[in-house]
Predict the structure of Uroporphyrinogen decarboxylase.
Amino acid sequence: MEYSNKNFPELKNDRLLRAALGKSVDKVPVWVMRQAGRYLPEFQEVRAKHDFFTVCRTPELACEVTLQPLRRYEHLDASIIFSDILVIPQALGMTVEMHPGVGPVFPKPLQTPSEIDGLQPEGAVSRLDYVGKAITLTRHKIDGKVPLIGFTGAPFTLFGYMLEGGGSKTMSKTKEWLEKYPKDVHRLLCLLTNVIIDYVVMQVESGAQLLQVFESSADHLSREQFTEFSIPYLKDIRSGVRAKLTEKSLEQVPMTIFAKGAGHSLDIQAQLGYETIGLDWTVDPTEARKIVGENITLQGNLDPQDLYKTPEEIKTLTTEMVKKFGKHRYIANLGHGITPQTPLESMTVFTETVHEAI
Ligand SMILES: Cc1c2[nH]c(c1CCC(=O)O)Cc1[nH]c(c(CCC(=O)O)c1C)Cc1[nH]c(c(CCC(=O)O)c1C)Cc1[nH]c(c(C)c1CCC(=O)O)C2
């Protein structure tokens, strides 16, 4: 049955959206990056039967794994649609496979700047309509319990994967291109930016209530490189989404920028128009607040590795973190995605403690 993107069930828990917009909350909202993932046995069960991108492309399966963490953890205040940032390179015509134990693999990564012309931005967003369908279905099935977050990779991070052909410790090819072919790099980042804007606007049209932009590879960039190769595009995405939503008479949604490893540039990030800035665990909450001021929400930032500690230690660390951030304009999360071997109990302790901390 086809679901409509109108008449969604009424939202019962709006803590996440209130915090993102700077309104008061009864409790600090909490969710976890990669909360639908391999640490959950019920996710593993689905993955044993279906290839990773088949789950992304099948709305019923994507919806099911999106809902799994909510069934297990009653304290979660948000869901994030199950998908991947690399569906964009796929929609541009590149092949991306997910190899268990390895991660994403591009059999034919970009090799020369002239190959940028072979990408197919026309029609890319309509080739991603399965994400919209998954979002619409999930908004109905979630029954207003918590808001649904949509997301995208940011241009620089996507460019890095398209060039390296997968995850890379050094990003040496990417860095070589930044030096050798800056004009072509900017051309590609621009192409990605335009697709990303239309893609996340489609997600909002389909039912996404908040958008997060993942600049996960920012940790490879100096402040100068981040300023040249990431910031202008992050800015264009924020203003482009705002303008297109207005143009389409769609409601505005709050947006989060999570630039991992870019704690050196919080002052610049605060100028981009995003309601929320995500922090990794290397950033001190008090320092971050001083830099970004009072009018931006902060999200983060417990070290995912801390979830391997004892429940008592997790409780102490989480309480300390929440107290440092405070109740105003704060969304509790980890400083990066939850890792596969994390004990199930740790998530209970983490999410429960956030709600009890202040
Ligand atoms: C860089 C990046 C990717 N994907 C993503 C990022 C940005 C966030 C980050 O930095 O962690 C984003 C992402 N990927 C996934 C989600 C789903 C929603 C959620 O957060 O629960 C989200 C938001 C599912 C996934 N994406 C992936 C899995 C595990 C793969 C599997 O099931 O086999 C999941 C649940 C695979 C993936 N996908 C990607 C990598 C590098 C890997 C392999 C490494 C890893 O597994 O952590 C690309």
